[in-house]
Amino acid sequence: MKFDNKKKIKQTALDLFGQKGYEETSLSDIAAVVGIKKPSIYNHFSSKEEIFTDVIEDLIKSEISSYHKLHEIEHPGSAIEQVRRVFDSFCHRLLTTKEARLWKRVSFYPPDPFKEFISKKFYELEVEYSRLLRSIHASGKRNGYFMHIDVDQFTASFLCLIDGVFLEHHYYTEEIFKERIESIWKVYELGLTNNKGV
After folding, report:
1. What is the pLDDT of residues 146-198, one digit of tens each?
2. Is the residue at 26 inside a domain?
3. pLDDT tier, 18 (very low <50, low <70, confident <90, very high otherwise)
4. Most-buried pick from 96, 105, 136, 161 (CB within 10 A)?
5. Which CATH number characterizes residue 65's domain?
């Protein structure tokens, strides 16, 4: 039961932090949704700050795990198909997970006490993205792709691509967003596969 309550507290906090923000979410809010009294939270966490950092840590682990799974696919297809798979995975998570809402909020409006912490976590995630992209670039090059695209250029371009997608999702409806990601990918793929890229 204790473990279940701890998990429920974090899941509820994830949802409320994403909806209302860190500052506007109280321990009383979290306790009310979980269905426990506020003092019971202290059986699991020392403070709202600890809940927040735990939630962000879990969010990072979830993101990293999803990209590790992409890396472990037995028959990954061509290099371009692999890049598309990473792109689709990122877009899918934006559209379907509660974590995405919290990511957007802490990206655009990081709580002052956690700015450095969040920046550090973003960097950790970027390192994992870069590791996966470098692996795709290396295997692609062995098979005739990316012959005139430096690995750092490739990695930077993709990270900028998903940063742009992240921002688009913040401003547009799901329908418009889906149309835009197809347009974005079409142009990006042309850049990877024209005679300068291949």
Report:
1. 988 999 999 999 999 999 998 888 888 889 989 999 999 999 999 998 754 44
2. no
3. very high
4. 136
5. 1.10.357.10
Residue 68 belongs to what domain range?
55-193
Number of domains composing the chain: 1
Instruction: Confirm whether 8 is domain-assigned.
Output: no
Find, among 89, 55, 59, the residue nearest to 72 by Cα: 89
Output 189-197 pairs: Cβ under 8 A, ≥24 positions apart.
189/80, 189/84, 191/157, 192/80, 192/83, 192/145, 192/146, 192/149, 193/80, 193/145, 196/148, 196/149, 197/145, 197/146, 197/147, 197/148, 197/149
Contact criterion met (CB below 8 Å) for 154 and 146: yes
- DSSP designation for 122: H
CA distances from 130 to 68, 104, 136, 152, 164 (A): 12, 20, 10, 9, 17
Q: Using one digit for the tens of pLDDT, what is the confidence trace for 108-125?
A: 889 999 999 999 999 999
Which residues are CB-neighbours of 163 under 8 A, at least 6 positions away? none
Whether 105 is in a domain gets the answer yes
Asked if residue 112 is part of any domain, the answer here is yes
